[in-house]
């Protein structure tokens, strides 16, 4: 299994890139959002990858973070969601957006992705809502962007002055993970904790850990 790839970006296609690794070119399919985050041709690049194996097909998919890769794996487990649909959802919302939409049960946000109908969007939310807390927690648990690992003396990869910068993790990632952990320690179910944290982050994306916990507790407090 190919879990990560590092090399020189040779060219960009509509939905894929070619990465030269020590003289071997790998075609890696990516979402629109990931494509926009990649450097230009000739620059060093590193992606987390997932290999799709079928009888008549081998396809490699690339992601800028393990969180994005994990959502791709989970989305692919939903009936009616193939690789193309998964990349469309991730391209439209990003890994953080998918986490929040699913945690909040917001299937309309999922439906906004190209080619995703209402029934499929509802199925995604219903089947993956319980998985959202664990994936959201990955954002602050060292599962961020893929580190640049291109060796300067690797054959076929010319030395670069500096590794290509990958997109940084969202500033709220650690706060999100810590708030989820705190709420679970207080006895709240993972699903309701994730939904409360996602709601707060939608309203105040800049909230730190303490503010997240306070606001989430207000949402979770019994009404009446």
Automatic annotation (TrEMBL):
Major location category of this protein: cytoplasm
Subcellular location(s) per record: Cytoplasm
Location of the region described as Domain II in the Swiss-Prot/TrEMBL record: 65-142
Domain of life, per lineage: Bacteria
Record's keyword annotation contains Cytoplasm: yes
Residues in Helix-hairpin-helix DNA-binding motif class domain copies: 73-92, 108-127
Region (Domain I): 1-64
Listed Pfam families: HHH_5, RuvA_C, RuvA_N
Quaternary structure and interacting proteins, as annotated: Homotetramer. Forms an RuvA(8)-RuvB(12)-Holliday junction (HJ) complex. HJ DNA is sandwiched between 2 RuvA tetramers; dsDNA enters through RuvA and exits via RuvB. An RuvB hexamer assembles on each DNA strand where it exits the tetramer. Each RuvB hexamer is contacted by two RuvA subunits (via domain III) on 2 adjacent RuvB subunits; this complex drives branch migration. In the full resolvosome a probable DNA-RuvA(4)-RuvB(12)-RuvC(2) complex forms which resolves the HJ.
Listed NCBIfam families: ruvA
Domain notes: Has three domains with a flexible linker between the domains II and III and assumes an 'L' shape. Domain III is highly mobile and contacts RuvB.
The family this protein is said to belong to: Belongs to the RuvA family.
Protein name according to UniProt: Holliday junction branch migration complex subunit RuvA
């Amino acid at each position: 299994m190919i879990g990560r790839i590092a090399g020189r970006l040779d060219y960009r296609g509509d939905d894929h890139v070619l990465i030269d690794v020590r003289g071997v070119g790998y075609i890696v399919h990516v979402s629109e959002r990931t494509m926009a985050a990649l450097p230009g041709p000739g620059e060093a690049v590193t992606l987390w990858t997932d290999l799709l194996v079928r009888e008549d097909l081998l396809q490699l998919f690339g992601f800028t973070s393990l969180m994005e890769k994990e959502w791709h794996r989970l989305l692919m487990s939903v009936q009616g969601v193939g690789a193309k649909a998964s990349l469309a959802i991730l391209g439209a919302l990003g890994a953080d957006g998918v986490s929040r939409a699913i945690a909040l049960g917001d299937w309309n946000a999922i439906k906004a992705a190209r080619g995703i109908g209402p029934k499929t969007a509802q199925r995604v939310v219903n089947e993956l809502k319980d998985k959202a807390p664990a994936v959201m927690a990955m954002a602050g648990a060292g599962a961020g962007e893929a580190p640049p690992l291109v060796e300067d003396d690797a054959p076929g990869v010319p030395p670069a002055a500096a590794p290509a910068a990958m997109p940084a993790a969202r500033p709220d990632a650690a706060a999100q993970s810590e708030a989820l952990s705190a709420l679970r320690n207080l006895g709240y179910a993972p699903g309701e904790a994730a939904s409360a944290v996602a709601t707060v982050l939608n309203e105040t994306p800049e909230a730190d850990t303490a503010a997240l916990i306070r606001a989430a507790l207000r949402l979770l407090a019994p009404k009446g």
